[in-house]
């Protein structure tokens, strides 16, 4: 590396990593507690990179539909009790579900089989905990349960979670296995469940639920390091007066198998001389799949932990970062959060459950948990840089395979464990596929992928695409959130055109490029805002650009945020707004808007406000970079500092909004490096300003791309010059090809803005209709 070229060092040091050994490793720098408080909705538990199992504590699953938002990930940092440890969780979602197969250790002679009231200690198996006893690292979590003094440890492999419980000496050891609780709870969510004890001591079971995803089936297989001494399987729908187990004894509930809608199990192990290890595998296919997954991933707690730690060290080692300690923690934790989803969905034998609720077989690793409305923006573009090509290929193949077996013939919208939730808008699997293809990622059938993209973009019943195709916009009198849908469809259309043109499919490219200009049909040049039109062509009135109402003109936002969403054609927007100065004036008005008289408490996802810029939700994420398109890149630099300083910190409440399966984190990671993918599919990263002194991207293929920031300090937050491989870079962007080729992007920072750099129209980022008068 270039930093060593002028040094004379012993060979042992020349072979060392780029950054000093006194600096904590990337693995040791990650703090999984970031985002577990506030609005982040992350979990601190154990997960492998893209792992099927997310084994984590749940502090409350007793919430109902109306109040589960704060506990969307199961754990909330300001809670004081733990209900148990379950095997499936979302990282930062704006909606709750999962929390499958909850396990809780109990010590002593009395075992309660109800969780109890968190406000009334001792009323159930729930227990207190203290943050001082917690440890959270990638792939590992531990805590001491205050009431029982049990030390609980968790680790996870790809399809296996492993618990280790150290019980107090002389105390009888028990586990409660509760199949009733879920995140996003409501009466009747569990449609059916079953549990079975096999002669060798293995326990298997299943649960069928209707929650965020309808009719979801999940299976488990569980083995123990010590033999069962006794057990009871209860259906509490039939045993409503059952309060718990008092001492030894057998009866009608010690059956080897039980089925019902409200099952809970008591598992007794007697007094143990060694910690109890519990290996659990899951499968969305069947119990045999779960048992096979358990067999396929061998090893005790320490072996699985070591293997997963090595996997995280490799994944996090894709980037080497030098920065002050808080920023380094923020950056590596952001990278960690970006590597949790999409999660593995297929079993070790290749079987997977599709959106048709049928079982299929694949010759690649199928992934699910696609939060595409969020993650197409920065999360997936980041993965193309920090993950091997085959991983990104598997993502694309998973999307296309899902479309192939979809009852509707369209790509996933918001999918987990193969089940579609129909949440959010757009057909944003399209830009994920197009961006990968445009960057040269191969290994998938491009023709089949393009066919799937076109099929999704032309399925008339979905989101009123029928009217969009006929009128050039989505009419608000026929479809809610019409203004947002119009511009999001238009961007997705442009990415289809990009991929089709590169493939030589000119007719498809021309057709969808024309459609991509439909954003203009919902833009009102008179007011300067995106607005919803009715089917007769008129704009809906009355109009208030600050109004946020779900089911109205916009999706989780208002006219202020959505009026900037044409990432492929910001030059066209600038013309409609009256030019560069008018655009900058409007951007400033957005960031400096006085919100003191507005109340957005009814809108859950509206967090991280800076005027009318809402960083806690995705429609705003590219907006600070639009100053670059208007020839004022130094204003982007100012706004980025404002955003980073106010929206991120290395604390449990360090994320201003839901991490949304890694999108909030990916925004921070890209921005910290000094550039951002405003328009995935353009193969350009718009330059902002770096927040790290140095970073080395260890790219797929063995090449390295280094970012350096000379003279970076709190005072020097403006970019004075940019050099690419030692030569001045006049452009306000760097291309994906330039990054993948390896080299060095050097920023020279200063205290005053450089108002000449990257301001000429020819030096601005890509815009479909260019800059200046048409």
TrEMBL record:
Residues 1-20 form the signal peptide. Residues 30-283 form the Glycosyl hydrolase family 92 N-terminal domain. Keywords: Signal. GO terms for molecular function: carbohydrate binding; peptide-N4-(N-acetyl-beta-glucosaminyl)asparagine amidase activity. GO terms for cellular component: cytosol. InterPro entries: 6-hairpin_glycosidase_sf, GH-type_carb-bd, GH92_a_mannosidase_put, GH92_N, Glyco_hydro_92, PNGase. GO terms for biological process: carbohydrate metabolic process; glycoprotein catabolic process. The keyword Signal applies. Residues 290-750 form the Glycosyl hydrolase family domain. PANTHER family: PEPTIDE N-GLYCANASE PNGASE -RELATED, SECRETED PROTEIN. This is Putative alpha-1,2-mannosidase.
């Amino acid at each position: 590396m270039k930093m060593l070229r002028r040094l004379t060092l012993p060979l042992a040091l020349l072979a060392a990593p780029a950054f000093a050994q006194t600096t904590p490793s990337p693995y040791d720098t990650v703090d999984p507690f970031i985002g577990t408080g506030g609005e982040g909705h992350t979990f601190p538990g154990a997960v492998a990179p893209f792992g099927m199992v997310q084994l984590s504590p749940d502090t409350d699953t007793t919430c109902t539909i109306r109040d589960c938002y704060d506990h969307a990930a199961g754990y909330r940092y300001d809670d004081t009790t733990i209900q148990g440890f379950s095997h499936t969780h979302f990282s930062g979602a704006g909606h709750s579900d999962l929390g499958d197969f909850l396990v809780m250790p109990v010590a002593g002679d009395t075992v309660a089989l109800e969780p109890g009231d968190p406000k009334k200690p001792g009323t159930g198996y729930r227990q207190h905990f203290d943050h001082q006893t917690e440890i959270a690292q990638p792939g590992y979590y531990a805590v001491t349960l205050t009431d029982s003094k049990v030390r609980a440890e968790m680790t996870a492999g790809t399809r296996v979670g492993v618990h280790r419980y150290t019980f107090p000496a002389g105390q009888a050891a028990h586990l409660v296995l509760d199949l009733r609780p879920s995140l996003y709870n409501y009466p009747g969510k569990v449609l059916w469940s079953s549990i079975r004890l096999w002669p060798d001591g293995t326990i298997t079971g299943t649960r069928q639920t209707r929650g965020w995803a309808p009719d979801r089936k999940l299976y488990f297989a569980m083995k123990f390091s010590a033999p069962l001494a006794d057990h009871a399987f209860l259906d509490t729908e039939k045993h409503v007066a059952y309060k718990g187990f008092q001492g030894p004894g057998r009866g009608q509930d010690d059956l080897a198998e039980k089925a019902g809608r409200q099952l809970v199990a008591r598992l007794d192990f007697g007094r143990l001389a060694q910690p109890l290890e519990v290996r659990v595998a899951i499968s969305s296919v069947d119990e045999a799949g779960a048992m096979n997954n358990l067999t396929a991933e061998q090893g005790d707690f320490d072996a699985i932990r070591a293997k997963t730690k090595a996997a995280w060290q490799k994944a996090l080692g894709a980037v080497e970062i030098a920065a002050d300690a808080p920023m380094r923690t923020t950056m590596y934790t952001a990278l960690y959060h970006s590597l949790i989803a999409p999660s593995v969905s297929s079993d070790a034998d290749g079987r997977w459950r599709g959106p048709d609720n049928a079982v299929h077989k694949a010759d690649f690793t199928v992934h699910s948990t696609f939060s595409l409305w969020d993650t197409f923006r920065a999360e997936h573009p980041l993965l193309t840089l920090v993950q091997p090509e085959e991983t990104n290929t598997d993502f694309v193949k998973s999307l296309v395979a899902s479309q192939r077996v979809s009852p509707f013939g369209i790509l996933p919208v918001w999918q987990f464990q193969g089940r579609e939730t129909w949440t959010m808008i757009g057909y944003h699997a399209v830009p994920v596929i197009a961006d990968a293809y445009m960057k040269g990622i191969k290994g998938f059938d491009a023709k089949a992928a393009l066919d799937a993209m076109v099929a999704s973009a032309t399925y008339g019943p979905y989101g009123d695409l029928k009217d969009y195709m006929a009128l050039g916009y989505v009419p608000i009198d026929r479809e809610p959130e019409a203004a947002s849908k119009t511009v999001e469809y238009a961007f997705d259309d442009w990415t289809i055109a990009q991929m089709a043109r590169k493939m030589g499919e000119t007719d498809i490219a021309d057709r969808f490029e024309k459609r991509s200009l439909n954003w203009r049909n919902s833009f009102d040049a008179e007011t300067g805002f995106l607005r919803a039109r009715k089917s007769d062509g008129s704009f809906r009135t009355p109009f208030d650009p600050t109004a946020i109402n779900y089911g109205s003109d916009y999706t989780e936002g208002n006219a202020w945020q959505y009026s900037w969403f044409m990432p492929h054609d910001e030059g066209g927007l600038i013309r409609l707004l009256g030019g560069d100065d008018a655009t900058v004036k409007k951007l400033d008005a957005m960031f400096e808007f006085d919100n003191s008289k507005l109340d957005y408490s009814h809108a859950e996802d509206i967090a991280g406000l800076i005027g009318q810029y809402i960083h806690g939700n995705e429609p705003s994420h590219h907006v600070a970079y639009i100053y670059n398109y208007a020839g004022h890149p130094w204003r982007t630099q100012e706004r980025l500092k404002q955003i980073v300083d106010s929206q991120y910190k290395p604390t449990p409440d360090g994320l201003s909004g839901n991490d949304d399966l890694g999108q909030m984190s990916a925004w921070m990671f890209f921005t910290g490096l000094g550039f951002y993918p405003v328009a995935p599919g353009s193969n350009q990263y718009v330059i902002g300003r770096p927040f790290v002194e140095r970073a080395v991207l260890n790219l797929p293929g063995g090449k390295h791309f280094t970012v350096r920031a000379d003279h970076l300090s709190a005072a020097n937050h403006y970019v004075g010059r940019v050099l690419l491989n030692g030569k001045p870079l006049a452009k306000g962007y760097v291309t994906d090809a330039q990054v993948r080729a390896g080299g060095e992007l050097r920023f020279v920072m200063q205290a005053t803005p450089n108002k000449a750099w990257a301001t000429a129209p020819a030096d601005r980022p890509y815009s479909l209709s260019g800059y200046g008068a048409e």
